[in-house]
């Protein structure tokens, strides 16, 4: 195979070289988990220095595109959207306290309400029982964020489009990371109410009633907005 640089301008520094490495990954047909070409192979194929290759690999690793496993080698990464979370949290907090969380709430609502048509009636009895059990666990654990996250992840785990689940995870994680920085007040009544809202969503999905599921999810986000408004004064 000819070198990836043939007929193209020679990359001068890390950023364009990263683009060349991405192009090479595609040309070689590599998938997530596949071994990357070695450092020496990249140097030879792309006609650049060792330091330049290492700089580009570090940048791709930060994006989740490359996975370095010490003692094993370098592999193609998953390219998870989770790498965007720190930037989203920073932007949310910079946008002004509790009010800054509203942008994330808007996006979460667009994604999550929009999936109800697909999800209604699509769950197995086992998954529905799991979701109902998580509603009970929310009350027992005073709405442990990990339980809430598992509820939302379970809702979207069966979707054919894996990007939806990644988006839900990204915006859920970013929202709760920013919220924890603001130490917003919570109370037992709010925990019970949130659990009941989740239960209403599951009940509608079990019945295959997409319209009722959309309404229940919309009401859930309306209550989140109201709580943020109270916290923001």
From TrEMBL:
Alphabetical list of Pfam families matching this protein: FCD, GntR
Record has Transcription regulation as a keyword: yes
Presence of the UniProt keyword Transcription regulation in the record: yes
GO function terms (MF aspect): DNA binding; DNA-binding transcription factor activity
InterPro entries hit by this protein: GntR_C, TF_FadR/GntR_C, Tscrpt_reg_HTH_GntR, WH-like_DNA-bd_sf, WH_DNA-bd_sf
Keywords (A to Z) from UniProt: DNA-binding, Transcription, Transcription regulation
Gene3D superfamilies named in the record: GntR ligand-binding domain-like, Winged helix-like DNA-binding domain superfamily/Winged helix DNA-binding domain
Domain HTH gntR-type: 11-79
Name of the featured protein: FadR family transcriptional regulator
């Amino acid at each position: 195979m000819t070198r990836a640089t043939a007929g193209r301008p020679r990359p001068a520094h890390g950023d364009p070289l990263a683009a060349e490495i991405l192009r090479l990954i595609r040309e070689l047909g590599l998938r997530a988990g596949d071994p990357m070409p070695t450092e020496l192979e990249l140097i030879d194929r792309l006609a650049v220095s060792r330091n330049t290759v290492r700089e580009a690999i570090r940048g791709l690793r930060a994006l989740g595109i490359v996975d370095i496993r010490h003692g094993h080698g370098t592999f193609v990464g998953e390219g998870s959207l989770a790498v965007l979370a720190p930037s989203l949290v920073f932007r949310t907090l910079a946008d002004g306290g509790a009010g800054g969380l509203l942008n994330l709430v808007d996006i979460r609502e667009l994604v999550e309400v929009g999936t109800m048509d697909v999800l209604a009636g699509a769950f197995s009895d086992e998954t529905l029982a799991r979701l109902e059990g998580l509603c009970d666990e929310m009350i027992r654990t005073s709405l442990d964020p990990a339980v809430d996250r598992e509820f939302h992840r379970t809702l979207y785990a069966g979707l054919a489009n894996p990007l939806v689940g990644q988006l839900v995870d990204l915006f859920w994680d970013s929202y709760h990371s920013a919220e924890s920085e603001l130490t917003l007040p919570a109370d037992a009544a709010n925990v019970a109410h949130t659990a009941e809202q989740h239960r209403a969503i599951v009940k509608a999905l079990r019945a295959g009633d997409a319209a009722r599921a959309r309404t229940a999810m919309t009401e859930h986000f309306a209550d989140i907005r109201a709580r943020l408004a109270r916290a923001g004064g």
